[in-house]
Design goal:
By secondary structure, this protein is α/β, with parallel strands linked by helices. Helix content is 33%, strand content 25%. The chain has two domains: 3-29 and 290-435, LarA, C-terminal domain (2-enoyl-CoA Hydratase, Chain A, domain 1, Alpha-Beta Complex); 40-284, 3-Layer(aba) Sandwich (Rossmann fold). A six-stranded parallel beta sheet has the order 3-20-15-17-18-19, with helices on both faces. Strands 6-5-4-9-12-13 form a six-stranded mixed beta sheet, with helices on both faces. A three-stranded mixed beta sheet has the order 2-1-16, with no helix packed on it. The termini are far apart.
Length: 442
């Protein structure tokens, strides 16, 4: 038998090398080769003039005298580099007769801390936008800045930032990628959670639970909880769409980036139909259909990952889950510091009794502890090996099996799955998703 050599990069400067027998490899799951956009400003302007869904271009959507609000992604989405396209958007609005004084940006923080340093504002919005227009940082906990606009069919009360609601025209910006809860990021997420109140966000995110108490997470709401990866039928997604409809967005500009953070696609137009075209592009280029589940998956966050901490690990974990059998084994490669791990353990993990943990969250929901619960449930269903130099007891407290080298990790995996486990390799597990039994119905 012959072995194939692999070198997986992760974090900012780490690489692991290992061999896998050729006969054991079911596949190396990677995105398609997509040409990157070289002239970003030109691509953005062309997209604003020629929406992907054949809807009206931006200049025909707005009118002279309109007060315009543009949502911008938060500091936790710095990989989107909104500062690259915001000036082009402002210039296009100027050409349509909208002066800078009638335009303002609102940072769609969701539950992210709304306090920003000057440096963080520059990362999100760019120096040019900071010098030209007013910027508001949305605070989901400031009830005085929220207005009620209606209720979704699932009973989520929709409270939105009043500055967003009271504008004459509302433009959503952001980025589209796979997301382990609503299916995809971007689009309607600019409204919920972006500019929504805490009660609205938690009401929506509670839909990750199974309708029956004691059943954990709903397989329709959380990617990786089953073999299904769906946009259609996902209650979190559908609830978000209803909330967005109550906000009446007028235009959308979303970008799609590859695993190196380079733009590969710009979609503009109607906030729903243009967004769906973007989701379709993500499926076709970052989704990898698979015919069978493996015994073992080796998943890396890749270099300069767009998400870190438990959030980033959850993206990796959810994608690896989808290509590994129940009871199988996953090896995760992510560059965690001890500070990150202890922060996750302290703020996101509540109890060893998962049933009690679930009961408490159903009564007093928080995003942080619900993510920890989801992670813990996943760890019960797979053997999850984490390679790091962190203390073993710290990782074990989170349900992870510690390993200090790939050699040790493979030894543990072979002890659980035998010497010849069917194996998938996922070099960029945050951005790329295996697609078993995939359903995409816009």
């Amino acid at each position: 038998m012959s072995a194939k050599d692999f070198a997986l990069q992760y974090g900012h400067d780490k690489t692991v090398q290992f061999k896998i027998e050729q006969s054991n490899i079911l596949g190396v799951l990677e995105e398609k080769e997509i040409p990157v956009i070289e002239d970003i400003s030109r691509a953005i302007k062309e997209a604003l003039e020629n929406p992907v869904d054949n809807s009206a271009p931006l200049k025909e959507v707005v009118s002279s005298g309109d007060r315009i609000v543009v949502t911008v992604s938060s500091k936790e989405r710095a990989w989107l580099r909104s500062r690259n396209f915001v000036p082009v958007l402002l210039n296009e609005l100027n050409e349509a007769g909208i002066p800078d004084k009638h335009i303002f940006l609102i940072i769609a923080n969701g539950t992210v801390d709304s306090s920003y340093t000057k440096e963080e504002l520059e990362i999100c919005c760019g120096q040019e936008a900071m010098s030209r227009v007013d910027i508001i940082s949305h605070d989901c906990r400031n009830k005085g800045d929220l207005v009620y606009v209606g209720m979704t069919s699932r009973g989520t009360p929709v409270h939105l930032n009043r500055h967003f609601v009271e504008a004459d025209k509302r433009i959503l910006t952001g980025g589209i990628a796979f997301h382990y809860m609503p299916g995809f990021s971007g689009g309607r997420k600019g409204v919920l959670p972006g500019v929504s109140g805490l009660e609205t966000i938690y009401g929506n995110h509670k839909l990750k639970f199974h309708p029956q108490k004691g059943r954990g997470m709903s397989p329709l709401s959380v990617r990786g909880s089953s073999g299904l990866t769906a946009s259609h039928g996902n209650p979190i997604d559908e609830d978000m769409l209803e909330a967005a409809a109550l906000a009446h967005p007028d235009f959308l500009l979303n970008v799609i980036a590859d695993n190196n953070g380079k733009y590969v696609k710009v979609v503009t137009g109607n906030y729903l139909t243009a967004y769906m075209e973007g989701c379709r592009f993500v499926v076709e280029n970052f989704g990898i259909p698979i015919k069978e589940r493996a015994d073992l998956a080796i998943a890396s966050e890749g270099t300069n990952p767009r998400y870190t901490g438990l959030f980033g690990l959850s993206f990796m974990f959810s994608h690896a889950n989808m290509c590994v059998k129940e009871g199988g084994t996953i090896i995760l490669l992510a560059d965690w510091t001890e500070e990150m791990a202890r922060e996750a353990l302290e703020n996101q993990f509540k109890s060893c009794d998962l049933d009690r943990w679930e009961q408490e969250l159903r009564k007093n929901f928080t995003n942080e502890y619900s993510d920890g619960l989801l992670f813990s449930i996943w760890c019960l269903r797979r053997n999850v090996i984490f390679i790091s130099s962190l203390p073993d007891d710290l990782l074990e407290s989170m349900g992870l099996i510690p390993a200090h080298s790939m050699e040790q990790a493979l030894s543990i995996a072979y002890g659980k799955e035998g010497r010849n486990p069917r194996t998938y390799i996922i070099p960029h597990a945050i951005t790329c998703a295996p697609l078993p039994n995939y359903v995409f119905r816009p």
